[in-house]
Records
---
Amino acid sequence: MAKIGRGLALLRREPADHSLASELIDKFVSSNFQEPPRDYLPATCIPKLVTKKKIEAELKKIEEMESPFREVYPHDARERLATWICEHAPKCFAITLQCDPKDAVYLLLSMAIFEDLKFHDGLLPLADRQLPTPPPEHPYDYDEVSQVWTKLKIWDFCDKQWRCLVPEFSPEQYNYNLPDECIFPFTKLSVTPKVGAFGTVHKVLIHPDHQTGYTMQYTPRQTPGPNVQLILEAIQQLSGLADALRCLHNCKGGYTVDTAFETSNGQQGIHPTIPIRFQDPHGEETDYIEKSNTKSIRHGDLKPENILRFLGQQTGLGTLKIADMDLAKQHIVVTQDRTHLTSTRYGTIQYEAPEAMLLNGPRSRLYDVWSMGCITLEFIIWLLYGNDGLENFYNQLKGDAQQYCQYYEWAPGEERAEVHKVVRDWIKAMQETDPECSGNTALSDLLHLVREKLLVVPLPPDRESSLNSGKTLAPPAIDETRTRYRATARQMWEDLNEILSRKEIPGYLLADYRLPPLKDWVFSVDTRFAANLSKRSELLGRRFTFDDDMSALEHRAEACDFCKMLAEVSVKPDGSRRKAVGFERKQSNLLIVGEPFPVLSIFRSFEAELPTAIQLGFPDPPQPRTDTSFEFMRMWLEDCSNPESDNFEHQNCRTKGDSIPTRLIDVGTIENSTLQLVETQEERILNTGYIALSHPWGDPKNHPPFCTTRGEVLEAFKKRIPYEELPATFKDAIYCTQRLNVRYLWIDSICILQGDDGDFKEESTRMENVFSGAYCVLAASRAKGQRDGFLGPRQRHDFVTFQRGDEKPFYVCKTIDNFNKDVIEGSLNKRGWVLQERALARRTIYFTERQTYFECGNGIRCETLTKMHNKMASILGDPKFPTKAMEGTRAMKIAYFQGLYKLYSRLNFTRYEDRPFAIAGLEKRLQNAFGTRGAYGIFDDGDKPKSGLFHRSLLWQRGEDDDDAECMTPIDFPPERNVHVPSWSWMAYKGGIDYLDPPFQSAEWETSELIPPWTRGRPASTDSAPPDGQIVISATVRNFDVAGRQQNEVKFSYDTERRAASDGHRVQCVIVARLKEARRDWERVFYVLLVTPVQGITGRGVRVYERVGVGFMPGKFISLEGEGTKAEIV
């Protein structure tokens, strides 16, 4: 024992092991999925640990040894080897290091041999326990190599390699063919496995490093997501099911009551006479051909399992048909007149209607309508959020018991059923938060049908609707003032057809993501913020409505100020007069019934106590420059930015930028307002907080902008900026900055050097940091140019005061809280630079003609003290843009970026050559969010196994809105900008764009004849960064001839004008995508770029082309045979 003790003492004198091998082993994780448990290295550990610096450190250990290899592998050779390892073989290095971490010679020679053999991580695992065959140009002496790679070392490498080759799981891949030696990154949970005839199912936890595209928090599915084609097919199939149910419910003799029907192709048809055999729950069979009008049939067990899907070539969803009629029941007499009532619960519990629980009650054909309501709701959830969303809904419906339950529940303390709270909450959440369900869209109308007519407990008055046999009227449902009754199959079918009749309305099948719909603004009673001023609490509310005849209202308006105000707001937008008008109050707003936006607002004074929840606030906002106005601004900013606040709604607003702008204006204080321009890299600044100004420049021809230029002006401004020479907008910005107790201000024309020798190009790349790092952005929404200012007096607003006796008053005024009109559709937001400035800002104060607004990640606040929220507007107001936009499905994400670019393409510029620069910050964030590269409005995801963003972003077309020009105009970029925007980017042109979109999940993207410019279509491209000014797409150009085309068979959209090439050649095409619906290429629809050759051939002998348009046509018109012409599109 003494010898062992002395040995341990000597060992303790050895330095601690901080080697890379030790670091790797420390990161090992154990998987208990296999027996015995096996250790593995999580996927993210290798790129984090096996860096070039650490590789060089391991290889450098050879210098510590007395070995001739030090001269054979000097520093330069080891550095070159380390570079190769880092780029191509980090896993091979980590495995080799584990085999013998103490032998530096073995490690260096082993990796040198791997380099000679061109054996890299992509060739792992090493199979058959032997080294790979060397390439012909690098033959090797097996005896020499075997001195390094002995059989024992090879066996050891093969055993240890599995620790670094643990699979990663992704929703993009379904099948995995893995070798027996593979280690699974699973941790078995303490749940009894389920054993079946063919295998065992375990519940496991997957290591987060080995699952991509998944999250521990529920998010909607990434793909396929809602798209026009899928939504249309879903509603068409639901209409078909409703039609089949209508026919089933109205059987008459050998035909249905409604004999004629219209097929999907518009032809008339007849439902044939067929005898139907039924088997009731008591085992009795009946051949049924009904002879009386009072006879009918119900299905009785409608559920997804009893709806068959027949796949076809023309649709992705297929054809849905009702099946499994075993439980269908024949109604010999009208349901409500039967004396022998149904008592057996025979349907699937989850989809059964509430009347199934009424033991003395009948079950009518409307039982099936309830089941269809359940199925339709699940269809909507699946369309929006995929299988994950549907599973989430199921789990919530099951509750803690985790047992399937119905879509209804019993009202507490009452003997009546109501729609299940989980179902009500999901419907409400979708209507309020999902843009596909909250606007004028097909899914919104479909969800309304489910809520208002299908998932309705009460049956019509001529049907049994209570526990008793008598006919009674049912009470209203929870939170409703009137009783709704369940629809019939015919009514469901008619409503679905009404939805289909509106399919051609733009944006109806899929929401338009460009501007937030006016009707979707939510005005919430927000007394928490106002209570900081009033110290009062909000009250409970109740709804009220009233109707009036316009003649009577106008007559009373002569003597009543409130009636006068009602009459004024009742005038239609086109100026015409209504015959009658109805008003309803929603919280603190009065709306005209049937119209989306409030016309009157109600406010209570701070001391008033009203019997309903009315917003604290001001009917006439404070005037600009007043103490009250700036007190509001300071409170908004403090509430949003205070890190000690317990208001977690502003967490995302409190992030800070990593850098400060190159230059800032020191505005001093109110008492000492000496202005000077500060170079932040040269001079010490007092703090890093600053305000940024977003403003219009105006017409530079009539009023040259106030700006900084290099030389004397810059040096003078660093000493003093002459306040008296500043335009009014800049003076107002300085005054606001001082009143908000902030020392520094950023204004683009002053802080960026203008002119040919300025630094605009360098500074424009920093706009993302400038606006995201600002403490606040001031938006001069009122101003038309630098000379206008934004703190001038505003028009006062009329209001009516209501007061009874000694009670405190409340006020009614015309609604002025209209962020949509004042800001989003305002003149400042039509300026190209402002879109990026708004999206990147953490918080913004907007100065408009009506009032001042404050926007941050928690919504929009008004000077009236109203709080507003809109789902689409909040995406641009997201302080961590584009986090909120990325929460949707993949289809929604794509639709969002397309909508954003469509909006941006229609904005105005003083200098249109700014177009690529004014959105560069947003573009960078979108690329990071999508995990892609790219530029100029084009995403390059060619290095991903499932791409498509590159192709979709290429398929832009000239805008087709009424306000769009017939042709786009090329932008002339001056040489000093040192930028070349390629012809295949819409940023090379002036004008609005739209997108030519293949339906989701229906296109095969071309990858062999269309190579992206950055990734070159490969995961690791060595030439992925083209030289500046030479961004090109490699493509195969093909001829086409559309002679003999049919109407609507071909569509071409030319960017500028239809023209031939410079050498007189005709327009040719490049294939971007082809639809999957047809088997043979000549039948398929091809999406193409239209191109023409330009004069010039590259050094590699490749012809140069430019894009002139986009379109689609059947393959029969394209010359698909042959190799085509290899080309580069510039």
---
Amino acid sequence: MESSMKTQCEPWISLQRIYICLLCLSVQMVLGFNQVILLDPPVKALPGQRLVVFYTCNDPATVQLDLVVYFDTGSSRTLELTHWRCDPYGKTLKTVELNLPDWLVYQADGIVPDSQWALSCMLDAAVTYPGFDDTEEVVTAQDVAYLEPIPFFDRPVKQHELCIAWSMQMLKLTQHFLKKQCHFEQEAHLLSSIFASSEENFGISKILAPYKNKALEYLRVKTISSSRFMFSLWIWLTGHCQEKMCGLFYHIDSNDDYTTPTLLLTKSGRLHIQMSGESEESFAFLSPFKVPLSEWCQISVKVLRTKVTVSMVCIDEEQRKDYSADYISKNNILLDDTEGYFVIGGSKFIKGVEGYYGPMVYHRNRVLPRSTSEVVVPDVIRAVNLTGWLHTCRAFRLEMSVKIRGYSLQANQGEEFDTCFDAFHEMMVKNRLTSKPLFELWEETVPHRRQAVKLAKHLAFKHGKRGVNLAAVGRALYSLSLQKLGRGGRTGDISRILPLLLQAGCLSDNRALHMASVLYSSGLGVKKQPYKSWLLALLAAQKDDRLALLHLGHLHHQGLHGLPTDPALAYAYYENIAKQTALDRQDPTPEQTYVEAVHLNNEEELNLQTDKDHHIFQWLKLQAHRGAAEAEQAIGRMLFWGQQGVSPNMQEAVRHYERGAVQLEDSVSMYDYGIVLLQGQGVKKNIPKALTFLKKAMDKGFVPAMNALAWYYEQHEQNYEQAVKLWEQADRLNSPDAALNLGVLYSQGLYPGKAVDKFMAYKYYLKSAERGHIRGGILLAEIWTTGIPGRVKRRQADAVLWVKWAAEHNGYLGTILRKALDSYLKSDMFNSLLYYMMAAECGYAPAQFNVAYLCEQNTVDILDPGFASGCMWRYYNLTTQSLNPDPYALIKMGDLLYEGGADVHKDLFSAAEVYTLAALRQEPLGWYNLGLLVAEGYRLSLSVLIKLGLSELYLEDNISLQSSLYERCRELEGKDGYLPCSLALYSVYIQSFQKDYNTAIKVSTAVAVLTASTIFLIVPIVLRRAMPSLD
């Protein structure tokens, strides 16, 4: 009987076990026992790092750690770093040695290979199970961490473990690569690249913090009164100082005085060295040697208590010249390098040199025993090859000078002596520099120089006795290049036109240098060559070209093309063009156009573009004629600044200002008319008449007029009391100009009854900048770049953003944007792309968006498909990194990351991050695409859900999460996503119903089976118990 009962109970026990297993499996799915987390991952890609990984799994699985590297070409590469076995149910920590590839973390040295420029890196950890056919793996848990690649010249040099004999040979062959590097706190690399200086008041400011190492900090403080230090700086001069002195490297203390060390360059080319002694008295001396022109020279200064040693090594091709001088001070030399700040180049106190500053290293509290024979040219200087360009350019200019002289002689005599001239030219070319060309093939006489010679001859005969110079030939070559580009309209034409641009750049046309730099940087029609692009940008920036300055600021701000990220260097470039922008806006010229951010996918913005013959402009003129003051204002603004496609015409704009002020008595027109009369812009200056209209505008309550009258009282009558009264009144009405001017008065000590107050000036500059004043932003950035001791902390990163913002209002940038937009409206897509690319390489986000958009459209197949794809990747990616990215760009970048490509790794994690940014900007497609990712089985990370405000759904099923995402999408007002998101939500509801229905059927079936089994189990027992009673 017992055995019979046991056998009959087994089906019930088996069914109970099934239910328990199902319940446990559900709990495991909810709790997510498959998990992997990277604990405190590293931030930068450096050698010898460790990583702690936390992981769990349900069943025996594999934990795999991969490295994904993304390159600037749009391609990516996945490398398996390591993998290990995961045992079920055990929470485990594992420390992993990150063996990153040498080409990513070390400098290339012949053994460590060179690589493409890495945009970013990602550590990808995953818990994987074998698939059904053992060929694919199923990922059940994943975590990623991003690493920042180190720029090439900031990477360490690998110390190779080689046998003695071979290592000695390698050391001899590659000394500049394999020399031991000591990276201590005592070695400060103040400049790691090259800075182009145009002999203006712009430079690189650096602040040194106290040592983190307590022992080093103790020694630094102890040796302030008997200092020891050294520094070295590379310099290339293109000309002598125009003023008494120029700045090389100097220390400014908190009282705005020069202190130890100060290194300046005199007008005669000698070095001026100045130090501060124990008695707080400064002493200085001049070097006995001069700094030569057109050579790279390293200037070194060593200080050991009372002894100062100045040395210089100049290297020109294979020649090497050494100089040295010593000076003994009566007192010990004082230095507290944490007080104040250091400057390389120019500042508000002194102008920089005309030329280039190279790498600079400052050694704190130590003097290294180095001889001048050990000095080698830094890698970055060799890579740029400024010497090669200048030698080639010098030979080309010599030949063109001979040609021009000969043609001018023929033109003046009225006859052509071709035979004599050709023989003379042949002799000059034969006797000129015989060195091999070091830069490009454009120096060949056939066929590339034929166009330059033809233009020189044409100009010589056209101008006759007036003569022609090299710059005129350069301008003609640039114009010819644009004509050929306009006629061609294909990337294949660029390789033939590029030599003309390089020749024009050599002949002093900076526009040609910038365009050629952009072509090499973007790879449009030519092989991408970042260092050649950098060289051409340096050449143009040294001549103060505004777009080249903007380009270099962008490169060093973002750390592009392998250049090190250097906010201080980026600030120096941005500050230059920002201050020029403030001056340019006060004195507009026909070469400048108002900067307008027009996106090519925005029909409303495009429809606002007009010209004098367009129906919009004609309609405005009609409304103005009927007495509409707003129409009169709009026409005057368009004509004065050249807005919305209208060519600037200052005189015609003034007529509209006058009509609005006199006939319509409009306060805005009164103000505009008063300002042009006060400044004499487009009309003869008439101050009494200007004051009349400004007072009328102020009486009507127009706040800018109040500010303009205050400016007049301050500038012309020196009536500071009346000026301050008006400015304070305007400031209370949120006038940006009033806040700026009050700040200037405080900074200069001109505020009535008050002394100089930099902190009050700072507060007013901050208000002015936040209200949108360009000069207010520049002055605010000046304070943030050095700080105010005890009052305002240094904010270098924010200072860079302010001067970048100001620089991007430059009218020359606006002209390039206008040319790009006009070409687009005329369906000239190639030239539109070229001009937008010139602005995009300057870091202007709307232009970067438009370049990506044009590459995406590629309507007339002007671009190679491969280039178009890489172009989309690069410029949409750059657009998403701006402060205010366009939602369309976020969606497109997310799509690119989601789809991947032939050479691009599919990255769902990054796609989800970008879609999240779009969703947070109220873009319905962002919410919709996140819902699609979830529908495809992708699990959104907790960080994404927190940003979206949906963290409570982290452990919920996919249907609940999809419903929430699509509901958020539907809730967006005034958007186009209501219908598609409603349909998607309806689809989710149907799926949920089907799931619930199937679940109900399964439960009903299970209950029926359980009931039947129970009946079959109980009935025999009842019958058996009933049998004995019957007996």
